[in-house]
Each structure stands twice: as C-alpha cells, then as structure tokens.
Specification:
The structure holds three protein chains of three kinds.
Chain A: H1 3-22, E1 27-33, E2 40-45, H2 68-75, E3 93-97, H3 99-110, E4 119-124, H4 132-138, E5 144-149, E6 153-158, E7 161-166, H5 173-176, E8 188-190, H6 204-210, H7 214-225, H8 233-237, H9 262-275, H10 285-289, H11 297-311, E9 337-338
Parallel strand pairs in A: 1-3, 3-4, 4-8
Antiparallel strand pairs in A: 1-2, 5-6, 6-7
Chain B: E1 2-6, H1 8-21, E2 24-30, E3 35-40, H2 59-62, E4 67-73, E5 94-99, H3 101-110, H4 118-125, E6 127-132, E7 158-163, E8 166-171, H5 174-183, E9 187-188, H6 193-203, H7 215-220, H8 223-227, H9 232-236, H10 244-248, E10 255-262, E11 265-272, H11 293-312, H12 322-326, H13 333-341
Helix pairs in contact in B: 1-5
Chain C: E1 17-22, H1 26-35, E2 44-49, H2 57-65, E3 70-75, H3 86-103, E4 111-115, H4 121-138
Parallel strand pairs in C: 1-2, 1-3, 3-4
Helix pairs in contact in C: 1-4
Classes of the chains: A alpha/beta, B alpha/beta, C alpha/beta.
C-alpha cells in the first residue's frame, strides 16, 4: 500500500474507532479489504474493534452514499409502521467521502433521502480510483494473482511475472476528468486536500461521440449496449436510484421489456441515464460495477455537459441551490422549440 | 473410448471443417478491458484460449435469454389470432468449442432440474461441447471444492488436453465421434494414450480427485441450523441486490415467462430471472416472502448449497469463480462455503 | 439494426405521428384549427394530457417503441401555463431529452417540441404540416421500434 493510502487508512481507523467508542456514531460506513486483488468490500463497522478492518486504497470504486439510507435506517430503534417516531435525535452514522461521494450526499439531502445532522463525514481528497478493467487490459486479460500499490505505481503479479504500471495510466476515466476531488461537505478532514483541478478536455469522450453522424452514433450506442445482460448492477450501485419501484419493474404499462431485446435494452439505458440528469456527480460507480464493461458514463456525462452548458449547474456543489430539473428560469434556452 | 492425437494444424482443420456445416462458438478476446467472451467463429477467426473462463457462462447457449416458447398472431382480423403455435426450430447442431470443464459440468447439473423441460432437452440434443481441460487454475477458480476437476470431462463430447506441443482428444460420446469424423484428420494416439494422459496430469500437479466435495457434508447438515446461522447478516450487508452473480453463473437457471405483444404479433418468452431481485418473489397481493436483502442473499446460497444437493445430490456450483470475479462488492462464495461447513 | 417494417412498402407508407397536446392550449389550438377548417395532414394521432409538464421521457419512448414514426409534444407558451410553471419545468426536461436522444443516434426530427396557444389554430395546422414533412423525409422509424420476428 502506498504511503498516502496507508496514512489515510490509519487515520480512518483511528477516527472511526473514536466515533464508535464515544457513541457519537452507531455505525461507520467504509471499505474493507476484498478477497481477491483489485477488490474492496463496502463495510459497516459497528464496534471500535471492527473499525480496525477499514481500509483505504485505489480500488474503493463503490459509492458509499448509495448505502446510507439503508444504514441510517438500520441504526434507528425498530418500530411498527404506525408507531410514532422516537423522541430525541436519531443515532448518527459515520461515512467516508471523497469529492463526488460528498456531492451525492448533498443531492440526497436535497431530495430528503438523508439528513445532514445524522451524518458524520470523514472527508478525503481523492487521488482518483483505479479501473480494474484498465489494469486487466494492461496484462492482456491474464489472471492477476496479486497487486501491490506504490505511491505512483502498481505492481501487478501475473503468471509469476511482475509488471509495473504507472497509476495514472489506469485511473478511471471519471477520475481523470474530475474537477472537484475534495469533498464539499465534511466534519473531519482525513489526509491532505487534493485541491481544485482544471481539466481542459473534461468532455473529451462526449465530444468524440457528438462529432459523429446520427447513424454512427446509433451504431456506437447499439454496439456498446449489446453486451448488456440486464443485471442492473449499474442501477443498484447508483446512489441516485432509490425509487421504491423502478420503471423497469413497472408492468402496466410496461415501459421496458424484460429480456435483452436490443430495443428494450436501449430504452433501459436511455431512461436510466436520463433519470440521473442534473443529479449525477460522475462518481463512476455504474461503469466500475458493470460486469460487461459497458462505458455507461459517457451517457450520463453527456447529460452533465448539457446541464452545465444550458443551466450553469453542477450536481451537489451547493446545498442551498435547487436541483436544475426542480427549478427553471423564464429565459431558459429553447432553440429546439419549433415555431408553429 | 477413442483418443486421437492432433497437431495444432489438425485442430484448426477440425474447426474449419465444422464451420462449413454448423455454427461454431468459442471464446475470443476483444474490446475494452480485454473483454474475453464467446463469439461465433468464422473462417479465419480462431479461438483464443486464456486460462480460466470467458465472461459469460455457457448457459447463454442452452438457456438463451430470451427463449421464444410460443408465437401467436395478435391481428384481430386473423381467424387464428391468439392461438399459440410452437416456433419453428431448426434441428441444427451447434458446436461450442473451448469449453472449460467447470462450464461443461454445469450443463449436466442444470439438466437435473430441467430433465423434463422440452426446451432445454432440445437444445442439449442439438449442442456439441468440445472442451479444453485446464492447465492452470486462476485465483478465482475453485472447481475442486465443488466436486469438479480442472481435468474433468463430465458433460463434454470431446475433451482436448495439451501434451507438450500436441493435443490429445478424448472422444467421449457418439456426438463426439461424429465430430471427429467430420474433422477428417487426426491419428490414433495408441492404446497407452489414456495412461499417458493420466500420468501427465499427475506430473503437472493438478488435482486428480475432488476430495473437497462439500455436497455429502452439506446434505447431512440441519437445514434450520444453516438457515438461522448468524453470518448471513454480515454476508448480505454490502450486497447491491444486482443480478450480476446470478446472470453470469452457469448453474443459476431461474426464469420467468411473459407474453409480449407488439402491434399484430405476439410471443411468449422465457427470460432469466434472479432471486436477487425483489420482484422475483413478489406476490400479486403485495406481500413479498423474501422482501429483505438478507433473505434474498441467503436464498441464493442456500439454494445452491443446501436445497439443490438435498433434492438432486451434487451442489449447484461448479467453481468457475465468475461471481467472485464480477461481484461489485466482492461477496465471495468460497467464504460462504467455509462458514456453512463450520456449522 | 436494419429492420425495415415488413408490411409497409415505400409507396404505401405514410408517417404515423403521436401528438401529446396539453388540454388548455395546444389541444384547444387543434380544436380551433378544425373549427376554422384549416387543412393539415391527417398523420397525427392526438393524446390529450393535462399539461406539457406531464409528459415524461417514458411516454415519448413508449410511442417510438410501439412504432410511431414521429412524436410531437406541444404545450402552452412560456408564461401561459394554466398551472403557472408546468411548461417551464417541462422545457428543461425536453431540452435535455431532445439532445440526449440525438446523442444516442435518434434522428433529429423524430421527436419534436412546440408551443401552441388556444388561439393559434392556423399555426397548429402549419406545425403539423411541417412536422409531417420532416418525418416523411426521414422515412419509417426503425431505431427504437420493437419488433417480434
């Protein structure tokens, strides 16, 4: 493990341990070591001893914000559906947060999914997370038996050989173009601030697609989603997806058919991405968890770009401002409207 | 059983000959992240075998997503509207090459619950499996802990093993014999080939018996003790309840059926379902007997490791490791094995 | 995906366009066009909705999936919404949706948005003629049309 990551790991453990011991939080949501290389496991520590299992490395790709509503509920005293809420403040939950994750928490607060005063946030300036698919590609898809993380490099063990990879070469695309690596809300700072970043080619992946003809773009879209097995890992890993009944599960009307028919899969991906418009912080969880390697982020990134260009808004940066699709101005752009 | 000796060029010839009359599928590498998955071979495109298994399991072929069970007309003017008709199926052989022993074994395991299923049986009859035994075990492989072997041949029609620079092909079934004939090359490996094969397997250090098969032990365990075990909460906690594990698993065979009507045509399809989805058990009344994540996660493992062996004998897992490799939150079935066996 | 509709040949094909019209302005505009006997192509099938703010992406995609060659959505002009702000919210959503559908390769012109007031009967007739011609020029919809073979 690199120096920065081991320092952060120790700080998380110490802080989480203290918070749990003092009773300030009833549970702490972070990451534990995985059972295979390049894997971490979202982990909920409930005792100071369990806090010793928490780790921080370059493979924490799941967005913990997605688990928050469930974890918050799990620490509340149990009550029946008609029982009155308990008196006094409800127990709090601690959580780690990088820039994008903290922005998702802001979105959740605006949408009344979590409340600020029930969270104790350990803010971490993100150095970017590593894409296991990119590492896999670097070694030609061979079985990776171990990975050692240095400060700026990864040593990949494969077939008894060691391959040295530069960390930035295998960083996830969303982290590469991230402009806000520092958390926007936090109670304790862990490690150093990562600072604001200015990215010239922030929308390079989107621009490339936009430059194509409609037929080429359709081809690209169909080719990308043809691998989809409709496991919904993208949806379930997303902290924005919390509808009690998802549109894919509606049966009357049935918006989306159940099998991997290309039209059904297309509609699923269009609507899934569209539902994230103005709320997505490009945390990259959907793309990281996709078992089939679909580059889902390009879809949400396009919407992010349009929201920024048309409404000047970026998700989760401001706790006070309304979400871009929950507000309007009199003179929003409307060049697309046909004049009768 | 006949054993043939093949050079690399003979193998290429076999595939080229088969492709003339049948669709042939095999694992190839392509695209983002060295995506390794099944593809239909064309003349000139040969399989690229990597250690371990391709991304999707072999069930994609025998239990397709979706499978059309019936067709009907939905045109009110048609006198036979809404009368179900079986779709036309061509009785054509599909050849799947480069099958690993774990995937091959899953085909026979799924045939147990599907023994009376006409669709599965039909596809099984029209599919030939040409396997490659494993020389190495990947970090996520654990077939020897499920009753399988890296050199196992169960479920295969032909099993090919590399010996130095040549290949030995064990012709295991009648279908295999037809394929070997159609390949029009290869020489008899001689009477001692089988013992040489076994010797080489011993020498290579790969396991020769599946000593760790947990099925007999799990069958004997008290069901309620396993069901009420304390560790389920911890296992289920990080789960996202996505279907990646079940959809990539070769031995997950649950499905749902639905009628689709688009304009004047309709079809009854069977498509993959997953016990990870809340909808899987949702009743029409709104009641859901497995409404909690913990219940769903527990069911997935209990089905594979307790209910299935009680009913059919072996456990419903072949140790391919796909669920471990692709689980977004690293739920590792090997740890569940250990936990269950410790009870 | 080259799934040309099998039952339609080029000479007989005439576009089918689903028009979602808000009940207060655009539907009344369509009514006025009829009462005033303004001619417009008979290719649209009108679905009356309470407000353009009711139109979700689901409805538009469902129309395409079911075989519509084009979609037209129309509501009150900004400032005229009978629910005060429904069309303002809708405008943001439509702008994003239109761009996004084009981003994934749906032809520009398949999905159209407009504002028509209750007094604009003539404009409504003109709009329908324009949209019909646009869709006719694009040919039968193939992308996002679900087929059962």
């Amino acid at each position: 493990m690199s120096d920065t990551n081991s320092t952060i790991t120790l700080e998380i453990r110490a802080r989480a341990g203290e918070l749990l011991a003092s009773g300030e939080v009833k549970a702490f949501l972070g990451f534990a070591e995985g059972s295979i290389p390049m894997a971490t496991r979202p982990f909920i520590a409930r005792t100071p001893e369990q806090a010793e299992k928490l780790v921080w490395n370059s493979f924490c790709v799941i967005n913990p914000a997605g688990f928050l509503p469930e974890v918050l509920k799990s620490v509340e005293p149990s009550r029946g559906p008609k029982d009155p809420p308990p008196e006094g403040p409800l127990p709090r939950v601690g959580v780690v947060a990088t820039g994008c994750w903290s922005r998702n928490m802001v979105v959740q607060m605006k949408e009344n999914q979590v409340s600020r005063d029930r969270l104790v946030i350990l803010g971490i300036g993100s150095r970017g997370m590593v894409s296991n698919k990119k590492v896999q590609a670097m070694v030609g898809g061979r079985d990776i038996t171990a990975i050692e993380e240095g400060e700026h490099s990864l040593t990949v063990h494969c077939d008894g050989e060691k391959t040295e990879i530069h960390r930035w070469d295998v960083i996830r695309d969303n982290c590469r173009t991230c402009t806000h690596p520092d958390p926007v809300i936090f109670d304790y700072q862990i490690g150093d601030s990562a600072g604001e970043r200015h990215i010239e080619d922030r929308y390079v992946q989107v621009d490339k697609i936009e430059a194509m003809s409609a037929a080429q773009r359709w081809q690209w879209f169909q080719n990308e989603i043809s691998k989809c097995i409709r496991c919904y890992a993208c949806r379930n890993a997303c902290p924005l997806c919390y509808c009690p009944t998802c549109f894919v599960d509606d049966s009357r009307p049935q918006w989306v058919g159940k099998s991997t028919d290309p039209v059904d899969t297309s509609i699923f991906h269009i609507l899934r991405a569209y539902h994230c418009a103005g709320r997505c912080t490009d945390c990259g969880a959907c793309e990281s968890v996709c078992p089939m390697g679909i580059r889902l982020r390009i879809l949400t990134k396009k919407l992010e770009k349009d929201v920024l260009e048309m409404y000047g808004s970026e998700a989760g940066l401001d706790l006070e401002a309304p979400l871009p699709l929950a507000t309007y101005t009199m003179n929003d752009p409307q060049q697309f409207i046909i004049k009768g | 059983m006949k054993i043939l000796k093949l050079e690399k060029s003979d193998l290429d010839k076999w595939l080229a000959e088969w492709m003339k009359s049948s669709p042939v599928y095999a694992p190839v590498q392509s695209g983002f992240g060295s995506f390794y998955d099944w593809a239909r071979l064309e003349q000139g495109r040969m399989p690229e075998l990597l250690p371990g298994v391709p991304k999707s399991s072999i069930k994609t072929f025998l239990f397709p997503q979706p499978e059309t069970l019936e067709e009907f007309s939905a045109d009110p003017a048609d006198p036979s509207a809404f009368i179900l008709k079986a779709p036309k199926t061509a009785e054509q052989l599909t050849i799947i090459a480069g099958v690993r022993p774990c995937d091959a074994r899953s085909v026979s395991l799924n045939a147990l619950p599907y023994a009376k299923d006409p669709y599965y049986s039909n596809r099984l009859r029209n599919t030939a499996l040409v396997g490659f035994t494993c020389e190495t075990q990947c970090s996520t492989c654990f077939c020897t802990r499920t009753g399988g072997l890296p050199t196992g041949t169960e479920g295969l029609d032909i099993a090919i093993t590399r010996m130095d620079n040549t290949f030995l092909a064990e012709i295991l079934t009648q279908k295999g014999e037809l394929l070997a004939e159609a390949g029009r090359t290869g020489t008899d490996a001689g009477g001692d080939a089988l013992s040489r094969l076994e010797q080489s397997r011993k020498n290579s250090g790969s396991p020769v018996s599946s000593a760790d098969d947990p099925a007999p032990i799990l069958r004997e365990k008290d069901l309620m003790a396993l069901y009420q075990a304390p560790f389920w909460q911890e296992i289920a906690e990080p789960c996202l309840n996505c279907g990646a594990c079940t959809f990539l698993c070769p031995t997950c065979y649950c499905f749902d059926i639905q009628d689709e009507v688009i304009r004047d045509r309709g079809r009854r399809i069977r498509y993959w379902d997953s016990c990870m989805f809340p909808l899987f058990t949702l009743h029409a009344s709104g009641h859901n007997p497995r409404g909690l994540k913990l219940q769903r996660v527990r069911n997935r493992f209990m089905h594979k490791l307790k209910y299935f062996p009680e009913r059919f004998g072996p456990i419903s897992c072949v140790g391919c490791g796909r669920c471990i490799r692709e689980c977004p939150v690293n739920i590792d079935i090997r740890e569940v094995y250990t936990d269950l066996l410790a009870i | 995906m080259n799934n040309e509709p099998s039952a339609m040949n080029e000479t007989k094909w005439d576009p089918k366009i689903i028009a979602f019209l808000c009940t207060w302005c655009s539907y009344a505009g369509a009514d006025l066009a009829g009462v005033s006997r303004f001619q417009y192509p008979p290719n649209i099938r009108i679905v009356k909705v309470p407000c353009s703010g009711r139109i979700s992406a689901n409805l538009i995609l469902d129309a395409l999936k079911s075989g519509a060659d084009g979609v037209l959505v129309s509501g009150c002009h900004p400032g005229d919404c009978h629910y005060i702000s429904g069309n303002y919210y809708a405008r943001r959503r439509f702008a994003l949706l239109k761009n996004f559908l084009e981003f994934v390769g749906i032809e520009p012109g398949r999905v159209n948005f407009s504002w028509v007031s209750a007094s604009e009967g003539e404009q409504f007739a003109g709009l329908v003629s324009e949209v019909t011609e646009t869709v006719r020029a694009l040919g039968p919809a193939t992308r996002l049309v679900k087929k059962i073979d």
